[in-house]
Amino acid sequence: MKLSDSTLSLLKNFSTINQSILFKAGNKLRTISVMKNILAEATIQEDLPKDFGIYDLSQFINGIELHKPSSPEFDFENDNHVVIKEGRSRSKYFFADPNVIITPPEKAIDLPSEDVTFTLSTDQLDKLLKAAAIYQLPDLAVVGGDGVVKIV
């Protein structure tokens, strides 16, 4: 199995929410922040063959990116690790105990109806996050009024 660029990009975003993730068999990814105030869910192109935990998601992604520009193959035959293959190179990444990973609740969360929708490009979000990091601001807020939506 291979991971698409869009899935890798999504995992990078998820790593900013929680450093760990518990992958579930199938094509849904979910994460929640340690403070349990940010929840993210996404559907990916790949169909994961089993449940497994990654304790340091950024480290896992950086290990995958060592294989760029080619896309490595992932072999999930073992219960305690994944084998990342590229040509003749092989590396093992060991899974984390699911008990040490903060995971979202199993039950789906019923959210209220949408009051406001807006589009934010990846470039705009990247600039906002970079500015927040430069000014050491831990949070961004979406504020609306008088037909104008602002991110502060």
Task: Give an overview in words.
- The protein has helices at residues 5-17, 57-65, 122-134, and strands spanning 21-23, 26-32, 39-48, 52-54, 73-75, 81-86, 89-94, 142-145, 148-151.
- By secondary structure, the chain is an alpha+beta fold.
- A 3-stranded antiparallel sheet has the order 5-6-7, with no helix packed on it. Strands 1-4 form a two-stranded antiparallel sheet. A two-stranded antiparallel ribbon has the order 2-3.
- The chain is globular and about 60 Å long.
- The model has no long low-confidence stretch (mean pLDDT 91).
- The helix-and-strand class reads alpha+beta
- Distance between the terminal alpha carbons, to the nearest Å? 41 Å
- Integer-rounded radius of gyration: 18 Å
For the biggest sheet, the summary is: 3 strands, antiparallel
Helical content stands at 10-25%
Low-pLDDT stretches? none
Helix and strand succession? HEEEEHEEEHEE
General form: globular
Strand content: 25-35%
Beta strand count:
9
Number of helices: 3
Biggest sheet strand line-up: 5-6-7
Summarize the structure.
The chain is an alpha+beta fold and 152 residues long. The chain has helices spanning 5-17, 57-65, 122-134; strands at 21-23, 26-32, 39-48, 52-54, 73-75, 81-86, 89-94, 142-145, 148-151.
Characteristics:
152 residues; alpha+beta; two-stranded antiparallel ribbon; 3 helices; 30% strand
Please give the structural blueprint.
Layout (H helix, E strand, L loop, with lengths): L4 H13 L3 E3 L2 E7 L6 E10 L3 E3 L2 H9 L7 E3 L5 E6 L2 E6 L27 H13 L7 E4 L2 E4 L1
Antiparallel strand pairs: 1-4, 2-3, 5-6, 6-7, 8-9
